[in-house]
Amino acid sequence: MEKFNKYRVKADQETAKKRAEVEERERKIKERREKEQEKREALEPKIKELTDEEAAEMMQQQKESSKVVAKAATKDVDATKKDEEEEDPQDAGKLKPNAGNGCDLPNYRWTQTLSDIEVRIPLPKAGLRSRDLTVDIQKNHLKVAVKNQLPAIIDDRLLHDVKMEESTWLLEDKQTVLITLEKVNKMEWWSRLVVSDPEINTKKINPEPSKLSDLDGETRGLVEKMMYDQRQKEMGLPTSEEQKKQDMMKKYTFN
């Protein structure tokens, strides 16, 4: 009984710890959804009745704006063509990242930060419940399927490893499966979710400055170094490591 009580206390502590971790992850997911909802509400257009004079003035402004936009669009097309001509041949055919630094695919959409990946999968029919789904998150494999329905929505090897114990999924509004995958390597951008996906050009990823402020000093320094090296490569200039080597060579040559 003494041994039983000893290990029971330990088991209760482990259970409480895991429950707290799950509650914390669910809280973060809920906060993320609330922020997204706030952004969507902020972008919703406001309805306002206009007088005939205001409507005529708005039409004139729109015509002038259209001319400016058309001119700017022409410049953007020319700049895009120039960028494509100067693009690294190794990046030819790669997709441009979506607004979340991931990719929009026919069956799902994924976005990423340096620390995690979020996958949104619209379900093929409404009214499904969690028990109707199979979601299996492994260290290097992801499977998502509707039970008794083939083929699976996703059933493939992940591009890189994830932390199984830190990764979660939930059914959102009985319409969308939301999966959060915690990266093992938090200093690397993924070019695809699973190995069979089309590849995105990670050189065109633009991390949000607000996200950098959330990182600790050491990690933020490493991320800023990565961004600096990426810009240097795009301009054909030496990276920070290459600059150090050049400085050392100059020093030894001078001596």
UniProtKB/TrEMBL annotation:
Keyword annotations from UniProtKB, A to Z: Cytoplasm
Similarity-based family: Belongs to the nudC family.
GO terms for biological process, alphabetical: protein folding
Cross-referenced InterPro entries: CS_dom, HSP20-like_chaperone, NudC_fam
Major subcellular location class: cytoplasm
Compositionally biased residues, Basic and acidic residues: 1-50, 73-83, 241-255
GO molecular function: unfolded protein binding
Region (Disordered): 1-101, 228-255
Presence of keyword DNA-binding: no
Compositionally biased residues, Low complexity: 57-72
Pfam family, one: CS
Top-rank taxon: Eukaryota
Signal peptide interval: none
Protein name stated in the entry: Nuclear migration protein nudC
Limits of the CS domain: 103-194
Intracellular or extracellular location(s): Cytoplasm
GO cellular component, one term: cytoplasm
Keyword Cytoplasm belongs to the record: yes
